[in-house]
Amino acid sequence: MKLKQLISEFFLFIVSILIFAGSFTFFSACPVHDDTIMACHWAQNAVTALGVLLLAISLAAIVIPDRRIKAGLELSAALAAVLTAVVPGIVINICAMSSMRCASTFRPFTILFASLAAVIALLSAVRNLRAASDNSKKRKEK
Question: What's the pTM value of the predicted model, to 2 decimals?
Answer without folding.
Answer: 0.88
